[in-house]
Amino acid sequence: MDYGTCAAVCNVLSDATRLKIVDMLSCEEMCACDLLEHLEISQSTLSYHMKALTSCGLVLGEKQGPWMRYHLDTTRFEELARYIGHLSMEKEDCICEAAKRNCADSIKVNEQMEEKK
């Protein structure tokens, strides 16, 4: 996962209805009709939310006859959790190390310029 993918997935999860759908699917696989029974939204709105959830890989759908059955892709959630955990932990190859070096170099240059004045 990278910054862009993580941001896209988090954006999808930033909607309360989608979070509720994820919570419902965490219990069991459900068809669209079952989801609709527990949500106060129209069929077209559910389709919109399911497209967002499936497009980013959080939910997988399978057509069974006239119904669409959905379940969570737990691997994707684990990947997201690992990535976010990695972002928040201290590490040797941290992206900020280069910034710290650049900042330290800039401070040295500024100090040297001040000394010459």
TrEMBL record:
<feature type="domain" description="HTH arsR-type">
    <location>
        <begin position="1"/>
        <end position="92"/>
    </location>
</feature>
<dbReference type="InterPro" id="IPR018334">
    <property type="entry name" value="ArsR_HTH"/>
</dbReference>
<keyword id="KW-0238">DNA-binding</keyword>
<dbReference type="GO" id="GO:0003700">
    <property type="term" value="F:DNA-binding transcription factor activity"/>
</dbReference>
<dbReference type="GO" id="GO:0003677">
    <property type="term" value="F:DNA binding"/>
</dbReference>
<keyword id="KW-0804">Transcription</keyword>
<dbReference type="Pfam" id="PF01022">
    <property type="entry name" value="HTH_5"/>
</dbReference>
<dbReference type="InterPro" id="IPR001845">
    <property type="entry name" value="HTH_ArsR_DNA-bd_dom"/>
</dbReference>
<dbReference type="InterPro" id="IPR036388">
    <property type="entry name" value="WH-like_DNA-bd_sf"/>
</dbReference>
<dbReference type="InterPro" id="IPR011991">
    <property type="entry name" value="ArsR-like_HTH"/>
</dbReference>
<keyword id="KW-0805">Transcription regulation</keyword>
<protein>
    <submittedName>
        <fullName>Winged helix-turn-helix transcriptional regulator</fullName>
    </submittedName>
</protein>
<dbReference type="InterPro" id="IPR036390">
    <property type="entry name" value="WH_DNA-bd_sf"/>
</dbReference>
<dbReference type="InterPro" id="IPR051081">
    <property type="entry name" value="HTH_MetalResp_TranReg"/>
</dbReference>
